[in-house]
Design brief:
The complex is a heterodimer of chains A (181) and B (439).
Chain A: H1 3-12, H2 15-34, H3 40-57, H4 67-82, H5 105-110, H6 113-121, H7 125-136, H8 141-148, H9 152-180
Helix pairs in contact in A: 1-2, 2-3, 2-4, 3-4, 7-9, 8-9
Chain B: H1 3-15, H2 25-32, H3 37-93, H4 96-103, H5 109-129, H6 131-142, H7 147-168, H8 170-173, H9 182-198, E1 202-217, H10 224-233, E2 234-249, E3 254-272, E4 285-286, E5 293-294, E6 301-303, E7 309-310, E8 315-334, E9 340-357, E10 359-361, E11 368-370, E12 384-395, E13 400-411, E14 424-438
Antiparallel strand pairs in B: 1-2, 1-14, 2-3, 3-8, 4-5, 5-6, 7-8, 8-9, 9-12, 10-11, 12-13, 13-14
Helix pairs in contact in B: 3-6, 3-7, 5-6, 5-7
Classes of the chains: A mainly alpha (181), B alpha+beta (439).
Chain lengths: 181, 439
């Protein structure tokens, strides 16, 4: 069954299509949720609430753009609501903005996804949120600004700083790895 | 390396990942989903069937049970007619002279004549009820059959007739014997026709009722401070209902009615704080200029989540709207049959739809929950409630009555979800006013 058929079935309220859609995306979306909450239980709570919203508003999808991207945005926004007590704090940690050009392709290729996630999770909260939303989930700066109640300029600057902070960590890790090797 | 290339590397590395989910997660999601369309259709069909079958079934039962009794009465009349004919034949064969000499004295003539006249009227009455009987009885009357024969015929007729009407009308049967003579007999055919019609008489109402609703909350549950706040800040709940009803008379005064009621409730919550001080009684803080909500723990701006406005005295007003569509199933009794009547009815109503719009304060008292979404603590279907009405009716035209009187509704179960921070029931009292058409 194609995504379109699944979506149309869900719009009709067909329970079998809803279940199939859930089974198709639940695993991927749990990873998304895990990026914003700290444990499996909370991630599944977000996942549950997110899928309820997906089924409720699926008729508004309109078959424009990526359906997975649409679900992903719902999950992220649901996760942000879950952590609503979190008030976005702009990170002011100093990073070196004029780092030398470095090829991170090999560094990232050599790392496992788990290691890479650990590096991202180690970023300050403000950086991590914007970085995850922009780089991994594909949010625009406008969407990030709306979701976090910040300005687009803040989103851009936080992303830039997050990227530099991550690159710095990767570079240090590479150097440490090389010395150990 | 360009930023875009770096981002792509990260995205490719992480986006292909999947995590296993708990086995019961789908069940949890499914439990919160509205009933599947197919199920909704079936359930709607079931409601419609119930709506029509219950009054129709009651009417059919009542109507056919009367018909059975009338049919059996017709059968009894036929057999009686044969008996009467036989008696009349025997009388004809009796020697007239012997009859007159032995049984009829001159002093008895007046009595006999009176008896004949009296019995003739009864016989004439009977002729209205049964043409075959009337023919025979007219013959008896015209030919002046011996009095005792006529008397015995009429007495026999009376005896059987009374037992028939007893079956048809237990109220009449219980009247004192003095009332069950000529006057009672002359009323019987009319009563029979009325009762048959009454079994299938129906009416339709349309009404509107302004109401006052009240939440009744369990303050002993998980968040008493929250519940107390919600209770104390609820300044008023104005509501109203409107609907259509269809009813059927099951007996002279007993009726059943059902229909569709739509109940709307407008709740207004008012959170007041002191400008300059900033603190709400429960620790909430509002930016008095923008109406923004400020997290009291982090002192950080959350968002402009407050629905409504902050006025100059620092009062934040939030308006919520609730809507319920119910199907009432009510039995009632009419206390008077004149132009005026009082009709009291009671029963249950089944909720077939409920919707919520607005925001309520979260149990944590640090944010607001959007109660328009399915993740709200409110149920999508709130089950069964109790309903009672006392309505005065006044007939303004032949088939049209005006209706007015108090009505009361009470939800038997909580309208919020099980385990939600607010366990609340709903009750409302209103003034029913409407129009009835009697078919």
């Amino acid at each position: 069954m194609t995504d379109r058929e699944l979506i149309e079935g869900c719009i009709r309220g067909d329970r079998n299509c809803q279940k199939a859609l859930f089974e198709k995306f639940a695993g991927k979306m749990k990873v998304v949720c895990m990026r914003y909450v700290n444990n499996h239980e909370d991630a599944e709570d977000v996942l549950q609430e997110g899928f309820i919203k997906v089924f409720k508003y699926i008729s508004k999808f309109g078959f424009e753009g990526s359906f997975e991207g649409w679900i992903r945005k719902i999950m992220v926004n649901t996760a942000l609501t879950k952590i609503t007590r979190y008030s976005y704090k702009e990170e002011v940690a100093l990073v070196h903005s004029n780092m030398p050009v470095y090829d991170y392709g090999d560094v990232i290729a050599e790392m496992s996804a788990k290691e890479l996630k650990a590096f991202i999770n180690a970023l300050p909260d403000g950086y991590r949120l914007v970085f995850n939303m922009y780089v991994i989930e594909g949010f625009s700066h406008k969407e990030i600004a709306e979701s976090l109640s910040i300005s687009e300029a803040t989103s851009r600057s936080q992303l830039l700083k997050a990227r530099l902070a991550l690159q710095e960590k990767l570079k240090k890790n590479k150097i440490a790895y090389s010395h150990a090797g | 390396m360009q930023d875009e290339q770096f981002d792509d590397l990260i995205r490719q590395k992480l986006n292909s990942e999947e995590e296993s989910v708990s086995a019961g997660l789908w069940s949890r999601v499914e439990a919160d989903l509205p009933v599947a369309k197919q199920g909704v259709f079936n359930r709607s069909l079931l409601w419609l069937l119930l709506l029509f079958l219950i009054p129709a079934g009651a009417g059919w039962y009542y109507f056919t049970s009367n018909q059975t009794k009338i049919s059996s009465l017709e059968g009894n009349r036929s057999s009686k007619q044969k008996v009467i004919s036989n008696i009349a034949s025997e009388v004809r064969n009796t020697d007239d002279k012997t009859m007159q000499n032995n049984s009829v004295q001159s002093s008895d003539h007046n009595t006999l004549n009176n008896s004949i006249e009296s019995n003739s009227s009864q016989i004439k009455y009977s002729s209205n009820a049964n043409s075959t009987i009337s023919a025979n009885n007219n013959t008896v009357s015209k030919t002046l059959e011996p009095t005792y024969a006529i008397s015995s015929t009429t007495n026999f007729n009376n005896q059987v007739e009374n037992s028939e009407w007893d079956l048809l009308n237990p109220i009449q049967a219980s009247l004192p014997e003095a009332a069950s003579s000529q006057a009672l007999i002359s009323d019987k055919p009319t009563l029979e026709i009325k009762k048959t019609k009454r079994g299938i008489r129906v009416f339709a109402d349309i009404y509107y009722a302004p109401e006052f609703a009240q939440h009744t909350r369990d303050l002993g549950s998980s968040s008493p401070a929250y519940l107390k706040l919600r209770r104390n800040t609820e300044t008023n709940i104005y509501s109203h209902s409107q609907g259509i009803r269809a009813g059927v008379w099951l007996s002279t005064n007993f009726f059943f009615k059902t229909g569709i009621d739509m109940f709307d409730m407008n709740e207004r919550l008012s959170y007041t704080f002191i400008p300059g001080m900033g603190n709400l009684p429960v620790g909430m803080r509002i930016d008095s200029i923008n109406g923004y909500y400020i997290n009291p723990l982090t002192n950080a701006l959350v968002a402009d989540t407050i629905v409504g406005s902050v006025n100059s005295t620092g009062e934040v007003i939030i308006s919520n709207h609730y809507r319920f569509v119910n199907v009432p199933l009510m039995f009632g009794w009419r206390f008077n049959k004149g132009l005026w009547s009082i009709q009291s009815s009671t029963g249950i109503y089944m909720n077939i739809y409920s919707g919520y719009k607005g925001k309520i304060i979260h149990e944590s008292m640090q944010s607001l929950i959007d109660i328009s979404s399915t993740s709200t603590p409110y149920k999508q279907n709130i089950g069964i409630g109790f309903s009672a009405e006392v309505i005065a009716t006044y007939s303004i035209f032949k088939n049209i009555d005006v209706l007015i009187g108090p009505k009361y509704n009470y939800h038997l179960s909580d309208i919020s979800r099980k385990g939600a921070p607010i366990q609340e029931k709903l009750s409302s009292i209103g003034m029913f006013s409407g129009i009835r058409y009697n078919f």
